[in-house]
Design the sequence.
């Protein structure tokens, strides 16, 4: 669920080189020089070495919440937290010795109540959403191309409307948090909260799908047990992306005929108030 290679500082010092690692080294040593150089070049050098990353899951709403932190500066950010799991987030942040500085939602959710207000009360963190939001309680808004900064981490906001008109994705050098705009082998529905399938087509085909193919895709939900994908994988295997035109995409999305989310009448008004007053 998370990338251990990015968290060496938290790993216990190895007593001796594990057997598999000895095997890998032997393999690399035997490669002719140009291929060894190529193998070395595949190491990513553009990520902060001290990124803390956790992918958390709420099984009731199938929501992924992401904890990102700069382990040196000890500052953390949460993306799309769920109110029922607020105590778990606060405990985890404390256990890792971090300070939660901001909680952010990719969009106003209709299927669960946000923890933004609960976390602000518990930790004093800032709460942020994109400038298109109808939420009346966030302490910060951001616009397309602006950066969220947590310690030395920078997440670039990308306005990706379509699922809702307040949907944003967050881009890092090796990964993107896509909210409900791009799901693993799916895309977010576009039939409520000012959803617009034509806008979503543009957000995908003129936006997210232009990121490097090996960019990791972390969505806001998954209903099939998948945790992460890549842009290239989705271009090749996501059935919603196998369309010949914007009109074909619009027709496909308009024909979905889905039931409303169970919590929509509760979640949308509650989330305009950052989840406070939801009775949860
Ligand atoms: Fe959504």
Sequence:
């Amino acid at each position: 669920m998370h990338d251990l290679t990015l968290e060496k500082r938290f790993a216990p010092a190895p007593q001796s080189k594990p057997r598999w690692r000895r095997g890998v080294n032997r393999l690399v040593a035997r490669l002719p020089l140009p291929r060894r150089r190529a193998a070395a070049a595949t190491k990513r050098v553009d990520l902060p070495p001290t990124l803390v990353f956790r992918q958390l899951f709420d099984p009731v709403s199938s929501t992924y919440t992401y904890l990102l932190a700069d382990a040196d500066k000890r500052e953390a950010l949460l993306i799309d937290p769920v109110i029922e799991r607020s105590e778990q987030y606060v405990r985890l942040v404390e256990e890792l010795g971090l300070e939660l500085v901001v909680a952010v939602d990719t969009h106003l959710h209709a299927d669960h109540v946000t923890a933004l207000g609960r976390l602000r009360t518990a930790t004093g963190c800032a709460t942020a959403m994109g400038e298109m939001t109808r939420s009346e309680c966030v302490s910060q808004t951001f616009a397309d191309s602006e950066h969220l900064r947590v310690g030395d981490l920078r997440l670039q906001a990308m306005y990706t409307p379509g699922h809702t008109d307040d949907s944003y994705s967050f881009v890092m050098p090796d990964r993107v948090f896509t909210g409900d705009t791009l799901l693993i082998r799916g895309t977010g529905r576009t039939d409520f909260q000012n959803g617009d399938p034509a806008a979503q087509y543009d957000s995908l085909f003129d936006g997210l799908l232009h990121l490097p193919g090996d960019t990791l895709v972390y969505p806001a939900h998954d209903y099939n047990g998948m945790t992460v994908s890549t842009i290239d994988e989705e271009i090749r295997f996501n059935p919603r992306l196998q369309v010949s035109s914007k009109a074909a995409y619009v027709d496909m999305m308009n024909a979905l005929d889905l039931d409303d989310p169970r919590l929509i009448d509760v979640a949308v008004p509650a989330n305009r108030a950052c989840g406070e007053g939801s009775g949860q």
